[in-house]
Design a protein that fits this description.
The protein is an alpha+beta fold. Helices cover about 35% and strands about 20% of the residues.
C-alpha cells in the first residue's frame, strides 16, 4: 500500500524504505495508471533529463520497484514492460492504489 501524502510504502503490512527517486517514480506510475510511459517521458518528467537515448536509468529503477513490490518479479502484474514502447503500471483489480498491499 502506498500513502502518497505521508510517503509511506508498505508490503504485507511491513514498511518499505524506498530511496527517494524510486518513490518519485512509483508516485508517477500511480498518477498515470494504465498509460504507456516511454523511457524518454519518464526521464523528462521524473528525472528532469533531456532525451538520453542510451540511458538505462529507467530500466534499473523499474527493476528495483519490481524487486521490492511485485509478488513474482519474473512475471510482473503491475509494472509491465512494453517492448519498444516503455512501461505501463496496472493497479490491482480491487482498485487498491498500489502493489504489495
Amino acid at each position: 500500500m502506498v500513502d502518497l501524502d505521508s510517503g509511506v510504502v508498505t508490503r504485507d503490512g511491513e514498511p518499505l524504505e524506498l530511496p527517494a527517486r524510486e518513490f518519485v517514480l512509483l508516485r508517477y506510475f500511480l498518477e498515470h495508471p494504465g498509460q504507456v510511459l516511454s523511457r524518454e517521458r519518464l526521464l523528462k518528467d521524473v528525472w528532469g533529463y533531456p532525451r538520453v537515448p542510451e540511458s538505462r536509468t529507467v530500466d534499473v529503477h523499474v527493476a528495483r520497484l519490481r524487486e521490492r513490490l511485485e509478488v513474482d518479479r519474473a512475471r510482473p502484474r503491475h509494472f509491465l514492460t512494453l517492448r519498444g514502447r516503455g512501461y505501463r503500471f496496472v493497479p490491482d483489480a480491487s482498485g487498491r492504489p498500489a502493489p504489495g498491499s
